[in-house]
Design goal:
It is a single chain. The chain is mostly helical. It folds into 2 domains: 105 residues, no CATH class; 119 residues, no CATH class. Helix content is 80%, strand content 0%. It is built from 9 helices and no strands. The N and C termini lie far apart (41 Å).
């Protein structure tokens, strides 16, 4: 097959189907359809994580991909098509089908809303981390990028949350206010199952915008430094 992206599309689709079927076989539940689709969604998120980490430092591939889009060259576009973008397309399709299936099969409206918000929040956190991988590995010659990614994970999911939650204790003296403040802040560090845009998808969405801006500024800075 000439273009690797089509090969990866087929392989990843088969992986999603096989792993989902295996999990369904070894851990059967009563609501097979709901479980099958949600499991497929989670497996696609894992594949997206892997492809984000694998391709984050391949700057030349991105340049040729953008060049292919600008010149409308199918050869350059598909040959350098990011694998993670294929997983994003798969994720969107599963997500849309999942919403349709939940809306038509889940009688509990509150449960349906919570599931949609939870899946959206999970996907946004994965995209946030993917952009962070690109920021860390943007420079092809960066040393110890694996250690820096590990440091990012420890900071994003442990040190910074613990520090922020600890500092809140100095700002709120009433136990109820402190509990509410920590509850509201929790969504900025971990995916939550809340049927509320403000405390669910909104925190990772804000971080995606901030990280995207940082990545863009890194790109502009590196481009200027090369011109000079």
């Amino acid at each position: 097959m000439k273009y690797n992206i089509f090969r990866w599309g087929i392989v990843s689709t088969l992986l999603i189907a096989i792993l989902t079927g295996a999990i369904q076989f070894f851990f059967p539940v009563t609501q097979h359809g709901l479980y099958f689709i949600f499991t497929s969604f989670l497996i696609t998120l894992v594949l997206l994580y892997v492809t984000f980490a694998k391709e984050a430092g391949n700057i030349e591939k991105y340049k040729w991909f953008l060049y292919g889009l600008k010149t409308r060259s199918l050869n350059h576009t598909f040959y350098n098509f990011p694998a993670w973008l294929m997983n994003v397309f798969q994720l969107i399709l599963i997500y849309l089908f999942m919403i349709y299936f939940y809306a038509t099969h889940v009688e509990n409206h509150e449960l349906f809303i919570r599931l949609v918000f939870a899946c959206t929040t999970l996907a946004l956190f994965v995209i946030r981390d993917g952009i962070a991988f690109h920021i860390i590995k943007y420079n092809q010659h960066v040393k110890n990028s694996g250690i820096k990614i590990l440091a990012y994970f420890l900071s994003a999911y442990f040190f910074v949350p613990v520090l922020v939650l600890y500092l809140l204790s100095f700002m709120y003296f009433d136990p109820n206010d402190l509990y509410q403040a920590r509850k509201n802040t929790f969504g900025f560090f971990y995916p939550t199952i809340k049927d509320n845009f403000r405390y669910g998808p909104f925190p990772p969405l804000v971080q995606i915008l901030v990280f995207s801006l940082i990545l863009y500024l890194n790109f502009k800075f590196l481009r200027k430094s090369k011109d000079h």
